[in-house]
Amino acid sequence: MPGIPEEEAGPYEVGGTAMRIAQLIQEGLQPLSPGDTVHRAREQMAAQRVRHLPVVNEAGELLGVVSDEQLRLVDDPNLPVAMLVRGTPVSVTPDLHVFDAARVVLQHGLTVLPVAGSNHHYRGAVPGQHLLEQLIRMLSLHEPGAILELEIDARDYALSNLLYCVEQCDARVRALVVEPLDASESRFRVTLKLNVQDTARIRHVLEHRGFHVAAAYNEEDDEELRQRIEAFMRYLEV
After folding, report:
1. Beta pairing partners, 121
2. What is the rounded CA–CA span in Å between residue 101 and residue 10?
3. Phi, psi of 10 (to 5 degrees)
4. How remote is the C-alpha of 80 from its chain's centroid?
5. What was the pLDDT predicted at 14?
6. Structural contact between residues 165 and 202, judged by C-beta atoms closer than 8 angstroms
7. pLDDT tens across 96-147, in order?
8. Mean pLDDT of all residues in the chain?
9. By C-alpha distance, which of 78, 18, 9, 7 is closest to 42?
């Protein structure tokens, strides 16, 4: 039986959650045409409440991305946006995981992420806000539950042991994020989002097993945690 071409294969889902960026394409987000003027581009960005728009020709080829910053630097409002497009267009493939897509958004500071297949064929675009909302769902940030931050030596890190400690306390890990604390990756910060609010017993078990709990946050009464999440959301929106 012949295989399905990669671009046409359906996106993987886990519990109805989008894992591929193609699932987040917003049909109503209109790209610019090469002949659109700077004035027209400014109007379209304002109407769609974004600071970036892809430029796509009649053949459906993604030529590049134009930013509002570029538009502000142009004196002639009648200049075609095609004159502002330079280099290889920034885009992601439809089958890219949303985590990797988020990295591209942050790397290039985009508010709109173009999605393109082979030969830069334009497939659509994902607003940064939609990507942010998807990340929040996938990391369970919208669900109630405490957050623990652990600092662990690489030689001591074992995911199975960590999860076992939590499950011993009749709790579950909703989401887990691992970040290196140094360039050599000899130490890690492990952030756990739990399904419970009271972490006293969990922290005791973790510390007893040799895990260092650097911080604990309870969403019900910790204003610092709420501020950190809100700051993270604002950062991704920028």
Report:
1. 61
2. 17
3. -70, 150
4. 31
5. 40
6. yes
7. 999 899 999 999 999 999 999 988 999 999 999 889 888 888 777 778 889 9
8. 84
9. 78
Given the DSSP bridges, would you call strands 173-180 and 17-18 parallel, antiparallel or unpaired? unpaired
Rounded to two decimals, what is the model's pTM? Answer: 0.66
Question: Tens digit of pLDDT for each residue in 11-31?
Answer: 334 444 458 899 999 988 999
Look up residue 146 and give its two tokens. Answer: 């405490």
Output the 3-class SS for 43-108: HHHHHHCCCEEEEECCCCEEEEEEEHHHHHCCCCCCCEHHHHCCCCCCCECCCCEHHHHHHHHHHH
Contact by Cβ (8 Å): 7, 118:
yes
Instruction: Report the first-to-last Cα separation within the chain, whole angstroms.
Output: 46
Is residue 21 within 8 Å of 125, Cβ to Cβ? no
Cβ neighbours of residue 54 closer than 8 Å, sequence gap 6 or more: 31, 32, 62, 64, 65, 66, 89, 91, 112, 114, 122, 125
